[in-house]
Specification:
14 strands; 8-stranded mixed beta sheet; Spore Coat Polysaccharide Biosynthesis Protein SpsA, Chain A; two-stranded antiparallel ribbon; alpha/beta
């Protein structure tokens, strides 16, 4: 199984830490955020496609062509044109099987990722007290995804999309969705796919997004804990 990891982010909100490195290479606990992601991929993952952009040389120099016996290939996204655009940059490396897609700059739990390994589409979701900050997932009683709504003032659910998916070739048959800023948004595309395809949701036990300097303090705390205690 392959994994596509979106690692093209610049991380402007983390400056000056990202003045000389891309966001996934900002260090937490003495190593890059991206390294934590690579370390916890499920054993079924045997190849990784890193979608890189801003200061991509730093990532290539660090990880080169493999990480712990997993082959690494690189897809280049020259401009920040959105998550769906990033996936399309990786498409030429993908085989016809299911693949996992996730972000390079958030912290996840390996057990959650393992539960997403599937032949069917899966979206990893998380209950949060502040769903208005994220894309909200609407699901039915069986846990099947109905839609993904981008940030709303009065979200109808506290289940949010945390950017981990198991996808297959079917996603490329769904038209891309473009935001007002011109970026192609993958979450909205998956929400549209849910209208015609049964997409299972898995509830995560842990997720720590890193967007601001203060998030790095929380990240330092979490990586110092044993996995059994990384629950939020």
């Amino acid at each position: 199984m392959q994994a596509v990891i979106l690692a093209a982010g610049e991380g402007r909100r983390l400056r000056p830490l990202t003045s000389d490195r891309p966001k996934p290479m900002v260090e937490v606990g003495g190593k890059p955020i991206l390294e934590y992601t690579l370390e916890i991929l499920p054993p079924e993952i045997d190849e990784v496609v890193l979608v890189v952009g801003y200061l991509h040389e730093r990532i290539r120099e660090k990880f080169q062509s493999s990480f712990k016996e997993r082959r690494i290939r690189y897809a280049y996204q020259p401009e920040p044109k959105g998550t769906s655009d990033a996936l399309y940059r990786a498409r030429r490396f993908l085989n016809k099987e299911s693949f996992m897609l996730l972000y390079a700059d958030d912290l996840y739990h390996p057990d959650d990722l393992r539960e997403c390994v599937s032949d069917s589409p899966v979206v990893l979701v998380k209950e949060t007290e502040h769903p208005e900050k994220f894309g909200v997932c609407l699901v039915n009683e069986e846990g099947i995804l109905l839609d993904i709504l981008e940030k709303t003032e009065n979200p109808p659910s506290n289940l949010v999309n945390i950017g981990v998916y198991t996808l297959n070739e079917g996603i490329f048959s769904v038209p891309q969705f473009f935001l007002p800023n011109g970026e192609a948004n993958l979450a909205a595309q998956i929400g549209a796919w849910a209208k015609i395809e049964a997409i299972r949701t898995v509830k995560a036990r842990f997720w720590h997004p890193i967007g601001y300097p203060e998030d790095l303090l929380g990240a330092e705390k979490y990586v110092s804990l044993p996995l059994s205690e990384r629950i939020n």
